[in-house]
Write a structure and sequence with these properties.
The structure holds 2 protein chains of 2 kinds. Chain A is of the alpha/beta class. Chain A contains 6 helices and 11 strands. In chain B, strand 2 and strand 3 form a beta hairpin. The chains are: A alpha/beta, B alpha+beta.
């Protein structure tokens, strides 16, 4: 029974870029800055492609919400092996207020519309570090979730997922359909080979708006300010344990 | 100049373009120029602003690959001189070792612009890997692609597109480099086979090559019109290699003499027709120059990126040195030379893809990019100061790697002769 997968990917500022805060302190500078696919989403796409190569999956649909440039991200996913794409167009001016809840609603609607068996996402995006979309999508669909996945296997009843949690590794089993999110060690994404980049040009990408899916765009969160992290101060060297305990007491970290 | 003189001059320059038999006036000449753009998908047409989307994706993939897989090995293989077999195999998997070979013969079916863009990024990662890729694509696969028959392509191209097998190109000899017409290697007709005798020098990829394109005289009386091209599989009895050269740079690429002593090859191994060898070599070098231009540009970019990064971080007199005007001058001059060289490279590649003459532009690109590479590497060391002189940073290797780009595949002097010759013809003299 071959499965259908919906993979979400987001266009974010490239991880190697030095981030600068905008003068209005309401965000970071994005214009003219190098962008690429969120690294965790690359891992999600790669996992979907591997499942297709293992004949567990027969169709991979990649979706990205964003301005015109989101097409580059979709094309990259197509070049890695996705079959077709959906571009949910968000005008550049509205990107600041387009938040994880909206994305989750879009993904939930698309998952139902396309009748997919798995929604595969990156665990978080490296620009907002939200780590919300997979969980909220699962809730909206009332589907089981396997987030922070570092290994995914198909079982007769559904999926067995090993999750990376604070205490170590947790193994869970879910039925299908399910929502999964990829963690760092799930796999190592492939390079898009040149022949596949050429083939990606011919793959279909459909455009739509959030309104087409009945999703309202009103923001639920307002960004009050964005600031640089505090400059790191020098540490202090202490001479012995007594000195350390005294300093900790001084700073109020110890009541003893 | 009078109007009649002008139209006669333009008409004469027109006659250089193949296929134009109509009499054309000056105004329709301008219209004609505009109509010649024939590329339908935008493939092979770089604008002055952006690469086509496919080529941008290609560039990103190759850059990712180069940074992840080539940067870590570039220093070690430069010291050891070891051929980067694993990296070349991976490049083959990406489709880079047969990049403009048609898919029917196992290639990726892309164009010269794709070749230029990808080779620049690969060379930015590792110049040795870049020259291995360039010599293989332009100098070995190139002549067989353009002049080989179907059987030759099946035997000598198809197995050579995966990165597992590479080839080499033997034109230069100990007695002649720039003076290619004076080749002394001979090929004797023995009825059902050829016998090759002679020595070729400075051959890139010699040690790893399993296919050899070689130029030898078949009719001494015809001088350079008596040179023919041949394909020789390796190993073949009678084909041996000289010692590996101990080079200043691109040290992981094997360079040596290739010696032919009564080396017998089947009659079918002639490439093209007898006497066509010189023309094949010159046309091959035209495309090869686009490759070497890209390699030089990649070296320049590696040095430049390092210099910019260093200048933003290195503190002197209380601020990053990037605030000092003399450093800013160097950065601006390096950036400008790189930008201009890159535009020249894109133009040469785009002309080739559009099926138009590109000899002059390819020579310009090779000349510009190679002189830019040596300039930028030199200045980058200066920006890094003492750190630029040690192997902890890549710029000392960039400096050594850059130097050869002004020499091989046509010295800078030869490029200038090619450019001047074409200019004089264009102006009708």
């Amino acid at each position: 029974m071959a499965l259908k997968v919906l993979v979400g990917c987001k266009r974010v500022i490239d991880y190697a870029v030095k981030i600068r805060i905008k003068p209005d302190k309401l965000g970071v500078v994005t214009e003219g800055v190098k962008h690429s696919m969120n690294p965790f989403d690359e891992i999600a796409v790669e996992e979907a492609v591997r499942m297709k190569e293992a004949k567990l999956v027969n169709e991979i649909i990649v979706v990205s919400c964003g301005p015109a440039q989101a097409m580059e991200t979709i094309r990259t996913a197509l070049a890695m092996g996705a079959d077709r794409g959906i571009h949910v167009e968000i005008p550049l001016g509205q990107m600041d207020t387009f938040q994880p809840l909206h994305v989750s609603k879009v993904l939930a609607k698309l998952a139902e519309k396309e009748k997919v068996d798995i929604v595969m996402l990156g665990k978080l995006a490296i620009d907002d570090d939200a780590n919300q979309t997979a969980q909220m999508t699962a809730s909206l669909l009332d589907w089981p979730q396997g987030v922070f996945a570092s290994k995914i296997d198909k079982t007769d009843a559904g999926l067995e997922i090993i999750r990376e949690v604070d205490g170590g590794l947790e193994t869970i089993r879910t039925t299908l359909p399910a929502v999964l999110s990829a963690d760092l060690r799930l796999n190592e994404p492939r390079y898009a080979t040149l022949p596949n980049i050429m083939k990606a040009k011919k793959k279909k990408v459909v455009k739509m708006k959030p309104a087409d899916l009945g999703v309202d765009m009103a923001p639920r969160i307002q960004v009050v300010s964005v600031e640089d992290p505090p400059v790191r101060e020098a540490g202090q060297t202490v001479s012995d344990v007594d000195d350390l305990v005294a300093k900790l007491k001084d700073k109020g970290f110890s009541s003893a | 100049m009078s109007l009649s003189n002008l139209s006669r001059t333009l008409a004469r320059s027109l006659s250089l373009r193949a296929g134009f038999s109509r009499h054309i006036s000056t105004t329709s000449l301008l219209r004609q120029e505009a109509d010649l753009d024939d590329s339908d998908e935008g493939l092979g047409q770089a604008t002055f602003i952006d690469l086509p989307e496919t080529h941008q994706m290609l560039k990103d993939t190759c850059r990712q690959f180069a940074e992840a897989e080539l940067w870590p090995i570039a220093g070690p293989i430069d010291r050891s001189g070891e051929y980067p077999e694993a990296a070349i195999n991976k490049m083959g998997e990406l489709g880079l070792m047969g990049i403009d070979i048609p898919e029917d013969y196992g290639g990726t079916g892309l164009d010269a612009l794709a070749y230029a863009v990808s080779l620049t990024e690969i060379s930015r990662g590792c110049a040795s890997s870049g020259v291995i890729m360039s010599a293989h694509n332009s100098l070995y696969l190139g002549p067989i692609k353009y002049f080989g028959n179907h059987k030759q392509k099946e035997e000598f191209i198809t197995p050579f597109t995966t990165g597992e097998k590479i080839g080499c190109f033997c034109l230069s000899e100990p007695g002649n480099g720039s003076d290619a017409g004076a080749a002394s290697t001979v090929a004797r007709d023995e009825g059902d086979h050829w016998v090759l005798n002679g020595t070729k020098a400075w051959i890139t990829n010699s040690y790893q090559a399993e296919g050899v394109v070689v130029f030898a005289t078949t009719d001494k009386s015809k001088k350079h019109k008596g040179i023919s091209a041949f394909i020789v599989p390796k190993p073949t009895p009678g084909l041996s290699l000289g010692k590996k050269e101990d080079k200043l740079g691109i040290r992981a690429s094997a360079t040596s003499n290739v010696i032919f002593e009564d080396c017998c090859i089947p009659k079918e191994n002639m490439l093209g027709s007898p006497g066509m060898g010189f023309k094949i070599a010159m046309m091959t070098l035209d495309s090869g120059r686009i490759g070497i231009a890209a390699q030089a540009l990649g070296i320049a970019k590696n040095a430049f990126d390092t210099a910019v990064d260093y200048s933003a971080k290195r503190q002197s007199f209380g601020s990053p040195i990037s605030k000092l005007q003399m450093i800013q001058t160097k950065i601006a001059d390096m950036a400008l030379k790189i930008e201009m060289s890159e535009l020249m490279l894109f133009k040469a590649a785009s002309l080739k893809d559009a099926g138009r003459p590109f000899t002059k532009e390819a020579a310009m690109a090779k000349l510009a990019c190679s002189e830019t590479a040596t300039y930028v590497a030199h200045q980058a060391i200066q920006v890094l100061g003492g750190m630029g002189y040690v192997s902890d940073m890549c710029v000392e290797r960039n400096y050594r790697d850059a130097r050869i780009t002004e020499i091989y595949e046509g010295t800078s002097e030869i490029q200038r002769l090619v450019i001047a010759g074409n200019i004089m013809k264009e102006y009708g003299f």
